[in-house]
Amino acid sequence: MNPQVIIPGPDALPLPAPVFLLQFLLQLTFLLHLLAMNALLGGLLITLFARIKGDGGDDPWTSLPDAVAKVSPSLVAATVTLGVAPLLFLQTLYGQFFFTSSILMGWGWFSVVVVLIFAYYGTYLQSFRGKDLGGGQMPLLGLTVILFLWIGFMFTNNTSLMLHPEKWAAMYFADARGLHLNLTDPQLWPRYLHMVLGAVAVAGLMLLWWGRSRLARGDTSGAFMVRTGGGTFTWFTLVNIVLGLWYYMAQPAHVRKLFMGGQPLATALFGIGFVLGIVLVVLGFLLRRQGEGANPWPVSVLALAEMIVMIMMRDAVRAGSLGAHFRPETFAVQPQVLNLVIFAVLLLAGIGVLVWMVRQLYLAWER
Ligand code: HEM
Asked: Which ligand 1 atom sits nearest the alpha carbon of residue 30?
C-alpha cells in the first residue's frame, strides 16, 4: 500500500477563459442541468408513486402518471444536453481530480452511458406504448426509475471521490481494475439523498404550475396536480432540511468550520440556505391551506434562490475539501474570446429552443 498523495498535474494546455468565468459558467450550466434533472428524476419518482396508488380506473392517481410519462423522453434529452456544458467546465477546471476519480471507478462511470441508453428507451416505451404495455407497465417504470437513480448515484460517487486525493493511491494500489466506488465516504449517502429528495420537491413545484395552467384553461384535473405538487414540495423540503444537516455533519471538521465563521461567504450561504429552507416549508404549508387559487410565485422564486445557494455551498465544500491541492492561480490562461462569444450565443439559442420545444409539446398534448 502506498499512503502518499498522488495528484496528476493540471492540463498543459492553457485555460480558454479566466478561472472566475469558468467557475461561474460551471455553476450556471449546472443549475440548468439540475432543473432538467429534477423534472426528470423527481417526475419519474412521483409517477411511480402515483402508478402504485392509482386503481387503473378514473381516479386522478391513474391519469397523473400518464400525463407525466408522455413528457419524460423530452426531459431526458434536456437533462443530457444540459449536462454536457457543466461536464466540460468541470473537466477544464478540475480535470486533475475528476479524471482520476473517473479512472478509479471506471466501470461504474462507463456504465452511465449504457444505463442511460436503456433508461431512455424505458421512457419512450412509457410515453408511446402506455397502456398497451399491460402488466409490464409498472415493472418497466420501476426499472426505468432504478436506472436513472443509478446514473445519479454514479455522479455523486464521482463528484465526491474527486474531493479525496488522499484516498486515491491506497485505492489504486489495492485494486487497479477501476471497480471502486466512494461507498466508505460518510458524505456519500446524505449528499445523494439530498439530491434525490430535492429533485422530487422541485418536480412537485413544477407539477403545481402545470396544474395551475390546466385550471386556467378550465380543466378541473389541474386541481389534483396543484394539491399533489404543493404537498410533495412541502413535505420533501421539510425532510431535506434534515438531510442537509446530515450532509453538513458528514463533512470533515476543517470544511465544517468554513461554514461556522471560518469563511464569511460559506458562513453566509449556510445561514441563508438554512433560513430559506424553513421559509420554503412555511410558505408551502400556507400555499396548501390557501388552496388552488394561491399564488405560487413567491415560493417558486425562493426555491430557485435556494437552489442557487445550494450550488454555491456545494462549490464551497469542493474548494474546502481540495484545499491547497487545487491551485487555479498557477494555471496558464489564454482567453479565446471568439469561442466564448460563440458559446454564449449558442447557449442562449439552445435554451430558447428548449423552451420552445417544451411549449410546443405542452400545447400538442393539451389539445
Ligand atoms: C439523465 C440522467 C442523469 C441524472 C439522473 C443525473 C443526475 C445528477 C446528479 C444527482 C448530480 C449531482 C451529483 C452530486 O454532486 O452529488 C449530477 C451532477 C452532474 N451531472 Fe448529471 N445526471 C444525468 C445525466 C447527466 C449527463 C448525461 C451529463 C453529461 C453529459 C451530466 C452531467 C453532470 C455533471 C457535469 C455533474 C456535476 C457538476 C458539478 O459537480 O459541478 N449528467 N447529475
From this structure: 38
